[in-house]
Amino acid sequence: MIKRTIALAVLATLASGAAFAQSSVTLYGRLNVTAEREKVGSAKAVYALENNSSRLGLKGEEDLGGGLKAGFILEHGFDPTTGTAAASFWGRQSEAYLSSKFGMVRIGNFGSEAQLATGDWVSMHNHDTGTSADRLYAYFGSDVNKVAYRAPAFVKNLVLEASTAEGSATTKRTYDLAANYELGALKLGAGYNKQDTKKQVALRATYDIGAFTVGTYVQRDTNGIAAGSRNNLRLAGMYTMGASEFHANVGVAGKIGGVDGTKATQATVGYNYNLSKRTKAYTYYTRFNDGAAAVYGGDFSSLAVGVRHNF
After folding, report:
1. Where is the Porin domain (predicted)?
2. Residue 47, in any domain of the structure
3. What DSSP designation does 156 have?
């Protein structure tokens, strides 16, 4: 009886070990903080510490066999300058997914596929975060209560995605479509999303030429920023030299619905020094010029120095 008990215990241990080997959980995160001299409109300049989308996350995946996998992502936003947690603890991202040769189904809270395929790619110097984030891109709709599908690669290096997010008593459902395609040094993206009368479509391209990377997107939206249609264009460039990166980008948004005083521009120059694969020190200057109608919230500029660490 004792031998049988020991044998069963050994078998149970081996079985649990095999199951554990088929799954994994990873802790990851980013701390990204800048010290800045900021100026809003005609007000006197102020000095501030800024959080640049710092986060802490857990992700895991289990191999269910037969090519089927189940996984999750839980991501928490926080401000390292104060230690303050975001109002919704897992508010940055919280999703479960199933994937197979037939594609991937995602359920939960996660960002716009259209924006990730277009605008996010072109903000290379600080990952579209903080005070130098792209203020001209029309981002709207809901990121919560989403169901998404990512198609298998019918064409090599082509990724197609679609999602819908639940509306509410006052807002309608959001629809989101995206495509990403890589052809060597050339990488292309397209995105479309719609919520009620708000809609936008954008196209993106980036190209690597030796030490240079150039990128651009163009966006057309209706009622995305204010009532009316508008065109938005951004150009960006990066030059790498050893551990150094030199960045510049500029964005121009046209009149909204043909209304005077609604044009706006944004320009950023920056320098990153990669201390390691996970840590960089950087500095940038960004300036946003709003039109007379101030539909984007007014003029703004900032001179910043920062440190980013990924783990």
Report:
1. 7-290
2. yes
3. T
Dist CA 280 CA 288 (whole Å):
25
Question: Does residue 19 sit within a domain?
Answer: no
Q: Could you tell me the CATH number of the domain that includes residue 282?
A: 2.40.160.10
For residue 152, being part of any structural domain is answered with: yes
Burial of 305 (0-12, 13-18, 19+ CB in 10 A): middle
254: helix, coil or strand? Answer: coil
Buried b / exposed e across 148-162, counting CB within 10 Å, b at 16+? bebeeeeeeeebbbb
Instruction: Using the Cα atoms of residue 215, residue 219, residue 225 and residue 230 in order, give the sign of their dihedral.
Output: positive
Q: Which domain holds residue 284?
A: 36-310
Nearest to 212 by CA among 241, 244, 238, 248: 238
Q: H or E stretch including 103?
A: strand 103-109
Residue 20 CB-density burial (10 A; 0-12 exposed, 13-18 middle, 19+ buried): exposed
pLDDT of residue 170: 84
Phi, psi (degrees; rounded to nearest 5) at 216 = -155, 155
What is the per-residue pLDDT for 22?
Answer: 59
Structural domain total, the chain: 1
Residue 13 counted as domain residue:
no
Token pair recorded at residue 17: 């070990």
* Tens of pLDDT, residues 244-293: 999 999 999 999 999 999 999 999 999 999 999 999 999 999 999 999 99
